[in-house]
Amino acid sequence: MADKPDPNSPTLENRKARFDYHIEDTLEVGMVLRGSEIKSVRDGQVSLGEGYVHVESTPPSLSLLNVNIGEYGPSGALGHKPTRARTLLAHKREILKLARQVSVKGMTIVPLKLYFKNGYAKLLIGVARGKAAHDKRDTISKREAKRDIDRAMSRRR
């Protein structure tokens, strides 16, 4: 059986990131999660909107910061902190490549999508450059124009 996303598990997207940033490059990484965290992720209690990834080149490591994974009720006092720093898993050469890309002014790494693949939680991260206000207005106008065209085509049928 090939690497397929689990159809019964949630796919959580950070739609705000695609609006606020130009995504230059993406990478799928694994996550180090505790038991109560993985159960909360399976319940869909995750907020990726405020999150970002910190890259350390010596030693090569990735950390996911400011992502809120809600507390899992049945775990009680043995649960986890909702916004703790989480380690991301990637190959050394991939981490060093990300470190080089982020060293350019204006570049950052943002989480795009959280999903399950073969029972493991995976995170799609993207190297991004922030959009200016006029770029955001262009995105809104293109989206509205596409919506109007789709409406006109559906009425035509």
Number of domains: 1
Distance linking N and C termini: 41 Å
| Radius of gyration of CA atoms, rounded to a whole number | 18 Å
**Structural class by secondary-structure content:** alpha+beta
User: Order of strands across the widest beta sheet?
Assistant: 1-8-9-2-7-5-4
Work out the helicity level.
25-40%
Please tell me what the overall shape is: globular
Biggest sheet architecture:
7 strands, antiparallel
- Strand percentage, roughly? 25-35%
Using DSSP, what is the number of strands? 9
The CATH superfamily is identified as Small protein B
Q: Return the string of H and E elements.
A: EHEHEEEEEHEEH
CATH topology: Small Protein B, Chain: A
CATH class: Mainly Beta
pLDDT < 50 stretches: none
Mean pLDDT value = 87
- The total of helices stands at 4
Q: Please tell me the CATH architecture by its name.
A: Beta Barrel
Question: Can I get a quick summary?
Answer:
This protein is an alpha+beta fold and 157 residues long. The chain contains four helices and nine strands.
Describe it for me?
The chain has 157 residues and is of the alpha+beta class. The chain has a single domain, classed as Small Protein B, Chain: A (Beta Barrel), CATH 2.40.280.10. Helix content is 31%, strand content 34%. It is built from 4 helices and 9 strands, in the order E-H-E-H-E-E-E-E-E-H-E-E-H. The strands form 2 sheets. The protein has a 7-stranded antiparallel beta sheet with strand order 1-8-9-2-7-5-4. A two-stranded antiparallel ribbon has the order 3-6. It is globular and about 55 Å long. The N and C termini lie far apart (41 Å). 22% of the residues are buried.
